[in-house]
Design a protein that fits this description.
two-stranded antiparallel ribbon, mainly alpha, globular, 7 helices, about 200 residues
């Protein structure tokens, strides 16, 4: 008999790999797969009792729709112009870190208060950093990859602890490509800035 949970998890992991490759290439198609993947993981994380990340994936659905609209900006000619990769303004960085820490504390406390998770601190941390990372992704800041570099190793551990092996493989791939993605996006941003200066 086919295990429905495993099928959904493998499907989510495969969609996630496609999403990651599209993100690495800074393709706006990533948002389409970014809408499909969290739908799988809402079910998966609910089944495993990782509730903050379950709610996070509900947030992902809406955020990916928003991200698609932000990346594709309609111009007067009726065509679409993709948003350029940029660097996060320095004035945003400390507030973003502080707000992420506050969000981590708040989510973790709620999970502890309602006894909804045995791993409430890690669950809260990964949820908070992911929220920040996805916001940065909608703005196309290359530093968004730093958030995933932090989150992915924790998610590997969480997945292994819950025997979610396809998900652990997915986040292992995420960990590697996140490092590559950071330098790729940074170089794309730098090349774009250099081309502006020489134009």
């Amino acid at each position: 008999m086919i295990n429905t949970d495993i099928v959904i998890e493998i499907t989510g992991a495969c969609i996630g790999l496609v999403y990651l490759l599209l993100e690495y290439k800074a393709s706006s198609w990533l948002w389409v797969f970014g809408i499909l993947m969290p739908l799988c993981y809402v079910f998966i994380f609910f089944q495993q009792g990782i509730y903050a990340n379950m709610l996070l994936n509900i947030y992902y659905v809406g955020a990916n729709i928003y991200g698609l609209l932000v990346w594709k900006q309609v111009i007067s000619a009726g065509k679409h112009q993709e948003k350029k990769i940029s660097s996060m303004p320095k004035s945003y960085r400390i507030p973003a870190i502080v707000l992420t820490l506050i969000l981590t504390a708040g989510i973790s406390y709620l999970l502890y208060l309602f006894h909804e998770s045995d791993i409430f601190i890690l669950d809260g941390l990964t949820a908070a950093v992911s929220i920040t990372g996805l916001w940065m992704l909608t703005k196309k800041y290359y530093q968004e990859w730093i958030c995933w570099i932090i989150v992915n190793p924790i998610m590997i551990w969480l997945a292994l602890s819950q025997k979610m092996y396809p998900t652990a493989v997915l986040y292992t791939a995420y960990s590697v490509i996140s490092i590559m993605g950071y330098f790729n996006w940074k170089n794309m941003h730098r090349n774009d800035e250099n081309s502006k200066q020489t134009a």
